[in-house]
Each structure stands twice: as C-alpha cells, then as structure tokens.
Specification:
about 300 residues; alpha/beta; Rossmann fold; 11-stranded mixed sheet; about 40% helix
Length: about 300
C-alpha cells in the first residue's frame, strides 16, 4: 500500500507524466533516447516523437542554392526516421507514436502539447547542424517563456552525460523573491519518486548580505527552505540545504558539480522578454550545465499552471 506522500506523487502528472512529448531534430535521439525511456517507464507514460519541418523561407542561406525542395520526399524521409526511433522505444515496452508538422518549431511544439495533453517536454537545447539549430536551439528560450509544462532540456555540455540518466542527486535553486512553490514541489516530488537526494540551494546577493549579519542571513534562508518541506515521516530520500552568496548562475553550476547532480530543477521567470533571455541566469545554467535541466515556468509573484 502506498504511503500518503507516495500516493500524492504518483497522482501528480507534472512529477510522473502520463504523456511525454519529445521534440527532435532527428540528429539528437542518440542522447535523448536514454532519458525518454527512463522517464516513460518510471511513470508508464506514452511518448510522442515530434519533428517540425521548417518552412523553406526560414532555412539557412546555404540551402537557397537548391532550386527545388521536394516536400513529399522530405516528409517520407522524416517519417521513416521517426518510425525507426519509435520502434526502438516500443521495443522497451513503451507506447510511442510520431507527429510530423510543417511550421515554426516553437509554435508547432506548443500546439502539440495542447493536442496531446503532454505534461512534459523533452528536447535538446542546441541541435547538431544548421537546420537542427534553427528548429530547436534558437527557439528554446521562446518555449521557456510560453510553455506551461515542465521542460526537460539537455544542453550542449550534457549530450554525452548518460551517467545522469539514473537520478541520484537533484539540485534545486530556491529564490524567495517570487513564489517558488511550483518548482519546489516538482523537485521534491521527483526526488521522492526516484529516491534521489535533493539539495536546496539559496544564493543570496553578496551586496545585500554584506549589509547585515551573514549568520542571520544563513539562518533565515535555511528556516525558509525548511518550511517548504512537508512535515511527514515517510520521506523516501533526504533533503539537504545550502546557503551561499555570489553570482547565481555560477553558484548553481558549481554546486551541480560539487554534488554531482544528475538533474537541476529550475524555476524560470516568465516575465522576461525573449531578446533579454540570454542575459539571465537561467540561460547560463541551461547552456553550461553538465547535466540536464528541468524547468518550470512561473510569472513574477504568481505561478502559472496548466488547467
């Protein structure tokens, strides 16, 4: 019989998704596949493999040298490739279908999330090759600002990190400026579901900390993080807390290395403008982390959840 906390986790479709959407540029399944299989088997989820066929007028300049594009041939090749990927997934006892849609990747992915009811999106943030980069890499930031379901993103430094497939250590940066309940519950739920150690990290502003008693800042932050943890006795794995100060992105990346994190669960601010995303700590973590990053979007001071 499941304990109350285990039952709650099993019923949370953000933690244990029943349908997973995988956006692929057709060159990335080598490193996406282990994560897709592990997560789908853990929650008995159905998988949909999605490829967005980029409109010809937005292809790289080099392709303009081709006077004729045979769309039917492209669709046949894409379908054959996706079916081959689907067979690999189905061979592991997982239900899998495919979807091929013409259009801009960000719009296609958002619409497919609505159509399938998927509660997790898996993708690589940087494709291999010009078309892959155009279809996924350059729109990852747009998805982070507009998609309400958690996004499991594998950055360029995590492509070969297959050792992180088995979740043993999870890192969750905690901010007290905005409501962090959604991202915390996601990190906590996944840690408990997988029996993984969870580290809560609060990075305070160095200038702010210098104005007050550092020990008082640490005590306050630890008490605030401790208040997030449910008061139950049936925890499947421990929760650790750490408080430091400095540059947020650098401290998160350093802590991920120090704890040998297999996953960073990151709350992202939906309030920034797409053109300013590259200046954020979230962008730096996504592009430089040596493990996957699971993001959950929220608006400033208000969590946005899917109805």
């Amino acid at each position: 019989m499941l304990t109350p906390i285990a039952k709650h986790i099993a019923e949370n479709t953000l933690v244990m998704p029943k349908h997973i959407l995988v956006a692929t540029d057709l060159t990335d399944m080598g490193y996406l596949l282990p994560y897709v299989v592990t997560q789908a088997k853990a929650s008995n989820a159905q998988v949909t493999l999605l490829h967005a066929v980029v409109p010809s007028d937005s292809l790289p300049v080099e392709t303009a040298m081709v006077s004729y594009i045979d769309r039917e041939a492209i669709d046949r090749d894409v379908r054959a490739t996706l079916l081959g990927m689907a067979r690999q997934i189905e061979a592991r006892g997982i239900r899998c279908d495919i979807s091929i849609i013409h259009g801009y990747a960000a719009n296609v992915i958002r619409e497919e999330i609505r159509r399938t009811g998927a509660t997790r999106l898996i993708l690589g943030t940087h494709g291999r090759g010009k078309i892959g980069q155009l279809a996924l890499g350059s729109v990852a930031h747009e998805l982070l600002t507009k998609v309400d379901v958690p996004i499991f993103a594998i950055g360029p430094h995590a492509h070969d990190a297959v050792t992180h497939v088995a979740l043993r250590h999870i890192l969750h940066p905690v901010s007290f400026r905005d409501d962090n309940q959604e991202s915390f519950h996601l990190a906590f739920g996944i840690a408990q579901a997988y029996g993984a150690q969870l580290t809560l990290l609060h990075v305070s502003d160095q200038k702010f900390q210098d104005r007050i008693n550092p020990l008082r800042t640490v005590d306050w932050a630890k008490n605030a993080m401790e208040a997030l943890i449910p008061a139950v006795t049936d925890l499947a794995s421990p929760v650790h807390m750490r408080v430091t100060s400095g540059d947020l992105a650098e401290e998160v990346l350093n802590e991920a290395i120090h704890t040998n994190a297999d996953l960073i669960v990151l709350g992202t601010d939906g309030g920034f403008r797409p053109w300013s995303f590259r200046e954020t700590a979230a962008y730096k973590v996504l592009t430089e982390a040596n493990c996957p990053v699971l993001t959950v979007r929220h608006e400033p001071h208000q969590i946005v959840t899917k109805d």
